Amino acid sequence: MLKRLITSLVFLLPASLQAADLRVIATTNSMGALVSGVGGQRIDLSVLAPPDRDAHFLQAKPSMMRDLRRADLVISVGAELEAGWLPVAVKRAANPVIQPGQSGYFEAAEHLHLLDVGESGGGHVHATGDPHFNLDPRRMLDLLPALADRLASLDPAGAPHYRENAKRAVARIEARLPDWRARTESAPGAVFHHADTRYLMDWLDLPTLGYLEPVPGVPPTARHIQELAETLAGRDGVIIHAPYHSERAPRKLANTLGWPVRQRYTEPQSPTFDAWLELIDNWVTALATGS
Amino acid sequence: MKNSPHHRLLLPALLGASTLAAIPTAVAEETALPFSPKVSVILDGVYYDDSLDGSGDEMLGETAGIFDAHGHAEGHEHGLEQGFNLRHTEVVLSGSVDGMFDARLNVAISDEGDVELEEAFFMTTGLPAGLRLKAGKFYSGIGYTNEKHPHSWDFVDQNLAYRTLLGTHGLSDTGLQLTWLPAWDHYTLFGIEAFQGDNNERLGTEAEHADELPDRDKAPRLWTAFAKWSPDLGYDHALQLGASAAFFRSHQAMHHHGEPEEHGLDGDARLWGIDAVYKYDSGRAYGQGDWRVSGEYLWVDKNLEVAHHESNPGVIGEARDFSEDGLYVQATYGIAPRWEVGLRYAAVGFTNETRGPRPAVDADYDESQRWTAAATWHLSETSRIRAQVAQVSGAFDDHREDYTQFYLQYQMSLGAHAAHSF
After folding, report:
1. B1 touches chain A (CB under 8 A)
2. Can you tell me the ipTM of this complex?
3. B96 interfaces chain A, CB cutoff of 8 Å
4. Which of A131, A176, A191, A201 stands 20 to 30 A from B40 (CA)?
């Protein structure tokens, strides 16, 4: 009797609620871009960190715990990028399926080979490896099939859909790779604000000429800018920093060296696969301006 | 100091703890638990001076009111001395036990090497329906500031309302906590706690000559309930409102300190509180432009009876009703990259009275107020230096005292990046 009642109630629900939509939470727009590329219309996605914020410095907010409470899957960058807020938010969300070790918890870094594993980075938190791989198309290529597998295990009916989407996303990245490399072939290298571009420069095989921060996480000092200016005098290059960093230090260095300054976010402005492709394209353009 | 939680076992305790912490690592190899276990150490030092030759910090815990009237039997207050002070060094171990439980250990080591267990608890991670169960010794979930350890305070010291009504460490005890986070559109959390009720600094059973007093009720002697609610204001703004209550069903106290003569009281006590916190995230680098504003109001009410009197058994059975309240309001603002300034107002004793059946036992106490201003320089994510000035207008036993306090503090954290709750 009860069973029949429940069954009839289920059929009364609107069609949209009957679909096997997975509620997916991504910590950053890059992770959101990947999972939306794979999940397509079968997932409901929301992202915790706004794209104009440094995901490293967020705080566990009540609204995050509310979102995580109802999630089927949380996708994080890992390698301690979100160590200051995600563990607390996930625990306090009181949702057993997204706890670390459960299938509803996906940490991208665990599926990748990372740079700088074991380096303490002078007071920085990333001893588990550099977590800024979202600007590295090679590693994003590795993540796509892993994500498809995870989504398929949570929603077996959608497995062919996820695998097909992942394959298509891989093909779209591979189609762009020759162009991106060709455009930066003669680029002279760049100075960045923060050490979050190592994968990008490693992928394009370009030199990092310096960082505006004297030590990761410490704001630029006049003395450090002076030292950079002396070391780099006579070279070509470009200075790239995020719009949320002060323009003073990069302007000063640029004026001394006669270099261009470019502002780039390290995250796509929306959690879509197209936005992520555009982000990489924009970085390639910025790096190429130095030549 | 009869029920003192201090024990002299500095190194053995820590070595033992790190050995224990190694066990989950072995488990993690099989089950791949990404967050376990973590160790961090926080060093905390303060240079202190005041316009009373250094006695002003100790006096903050003794402002006139229903707690001071109990005499000074509460045990460990952490008064700073004039000059250099090494405050408690915090050692924190936390991690997953086996995928079903998380555990955490917070140890505070004094400058003399005494080890005090601040928290040692486990918590479920797998209960359905938004439920979580915590068991062990832990900071109660009441209020907003109560759960925060000294390294996450915005000022050098605890606010005057907490310090007077709950003690430097707030409400901390051994027991159980059950919280429920329903899957609602707005973040809403409900919690209840049951505690032993005799390990608190300021409330609960602290009587030292308990044989003079009637047997206490069986534990749990302290129950609390709290609720928190947060509307969704987008990413930049966050607001959380809370309400709490605590009921001590067996509160006992011995007064054996000067006037009046030694006597013992037995009864129950209640605590009510409301709290609000607002945070603004400007989105600029290194905390510039960020705001944090919070405030709480606490009210304590005790209904006791005289259960023992040294020289006048005739008063046994007489009622003694006490009430006292307190509040604080504080704000911090990121004035420059890595620089933060803060201002705090705290007061106790708007209501501050003892009532009995005869006018002779009635008493009214003055209120005490304190303004605190602080500037914090976060040199990096793991080190900070803070200067603080406070102006106290305090009521004490038989006089008022106005004085100024000065603090210079460092806090350095080693090891795991501690994730902090909202």
Report:
1. no
2. 0.81
3. yes
4. A131
The two three-digit tokens of residue A216, written as one number: 């990761």
Query: Cα A209 to the chain's mean position, in Å?
Result: 23
Domain ranges of chain B: 44-73+129-415
Structural domain boundaries of chain A?
19-177, 183-288
Q: Which residue has the tokens 């967050």?
A: B35
Q: Beta B89-96 vs B101-109: how paired, if at all?
A: antiparallel
Residues within 8 A of A (CB atoms), B 130-149 only: 130-132
Q: What is the dotted CATH code of the domain comprising B44-73+129-415? A: 2.40.160.10
Strands A43-47, A22-26: pairing is parallel
Sign of CA dihedral A155, A157, A161, A164: positive
Residue position matching structure tokens 């189609």? A175
Of B99, B287, B337, the CB nearest to A101: B99
Tell me which chain A residue has its CA closest to the CA of residue B95: A87
| Mutation choice for A interface testing from B235, B378, B379, B414 by most A CBs within 10 A | B235
Same fold across A19-177 and A183-288? yes
Å from B296 to nearest chain A CA? 18
Q: What is the pLDDT of residue B215?
A: 76
What six digits make up the tokens of B189? Answer: 């959390």
User: In chain B, what residues touch A92 (CB-CB under 8 Å)?
Assistant: 181, 421
Check B285 against A244: CB less than 8 A apart: yes
Instruction: Name the fold adopted by A183-288.
Output: Rossmann fold (3.40.50)
Lowest mean per-residue pLDDT among A136-140, B307-311, B372-376, B411-415: B307-311
**Mean pLDDT taken over chain B:** 85
| Helix, coil or strand: residue A115 | coil
Tell me how far CA of residue A136 lies from CA of A30, A177, B102, in angstroms: 11, 11, 34
Whether the Cβ atoms of residue B230 and residue A69 lie closer than 8 Å to each other: no
Whether the Cβ atoms of residue A275 and residue A226 lie closer than 8 Å to each other: no
CB B115 within 8 A of CB B9: yes
Strand partners, B407: B48, B388
Rounded CA separation B333/B288 (Å): 8
Q: pLDDT class for B387, splitting at 50, 70, 90? A: very high
Q: What is the rounded CA–CA span in Å between residue B262 and residue A69?
A: 54
What is the fold of A19-177?
Rossmann fold (3.40.50)
Contact B281 A59 (CB under 8 A): yes
Distance between CA atoms of B114 and B8, rounded to whole angstroms? 5
pLDDT digits (tens, 9 = 90+) for B260-317: 677 888 888 999 999 999 999 998 878 899 999 999 999 999 998 888 888 888 888 8
Task: Say yes or no to pLDDT of B235 above 80.
Answer: yes
DSSP states along B64-107: SSTTGGG-S-S----PPPSEEEE-PEEEEEEEESSSSEEEEEEE
